Amino acid sequence: MKKHLINRPMYGADTGGGGAGGGIGAPVTPPAATDPPAGANNNPPASPPAEPPANPPAPALSADAIINKMQAQIQAAADEAVKKAGMSPEEKVAAEQAQRLTELEKREQAIALRELRAETAQNLAAKNLPAEALDVVLGADKAATEKNITAFTAMFDAAVQKQVETRLAGKTPPAGQEQKTEDTVREQFKKALNGF
Fold first, then answer.
1. How many alpha carbons lie under 13 Å from residue 98 in its C-beta half-sphere?
2. pTM for this prediction
3. Mind giving me the DSSP string for 30-82?
4. Between 65 and which of 9, 61, 85, 118 could a Cys-Cys bridge form, CB atoms 3.0 to 4.6 Å apart?
5. Rounded Cα distance, 196 and 106, in Å
6. Residue 107's pLDDT is what?
7. What is the pLDDT of residue 52?
8. How far apart are the C-alpha atoms of 160 and 116, rounded to whole Å?
């Protein structure tokens, strides 16, 4: 769609009197900005409060705990710097390689743990066990986790069976009650037919 421009004055009609700034094609100046009154609030309106985070923050540590943690980190960094200062270039390279190796091993362990958690969640779902049991049955490796799942399944099934038996206890209908109901209905029909 084409937009048509129309030549209209922006702030008032041209009277044609030839006054200051009047006439067609004369530049139009916007009104001057005014300062807000002295008592007005110059702050922009407050934005709505942010939504709470999906994961609640970890509980706050005490000031002493934070100070102790920071001092330990500073001491470890200082010890590492002193240790590296006394090393030869070959020793520094070897230390950096060892550090990279330990970081790599930590990453591999984290990946293996994520994979084990995912596989365990699938196993729990396949066995109709609650997903909340994941942290309970998760072991150090796959074999330990399978052993924990087997033990948890036996314990869980026994607990469910016990609850079922508890709820059904005392509610078994007597064996002769069905026959009595049938006899009662026959007698009612006979009385009703004899009454006619």
1. 6
2. 0.44
3. PPPP-PPPTTS--SPPPPPPPPPPSSPPPPPPPHHHHHHHHHHHHHHHHHHHH
4. 61
5. 92
6. 96
7. 46
8. 27
In angstroms, what CA-CA distances link 9 with 12, 17, 159?
A: 6, 15, 85
Cα separation, 49 vs 56, whole angstroms: 16
At 33 the pLDDT is 53
The highest-confidence range among 13-27, 35-49, 125-139, by mean pLDDT, is 125-139
Return the residue matching tokens 């004369």.
26
Residue with the bigger pLDDT between 126 and 17: it is 126
* Residues 155-177 pLDDT 10s: 988 988 888 888 887 666 555 55
Q: Return the pLDDT at 28.
A: 57
The total number of residues written for the chain in this structure: 196
How many angstroms separate the Cα of 109 from the Cα of each of 32, 105, 140, 141, 146?
67, 6, 10, 11, 19
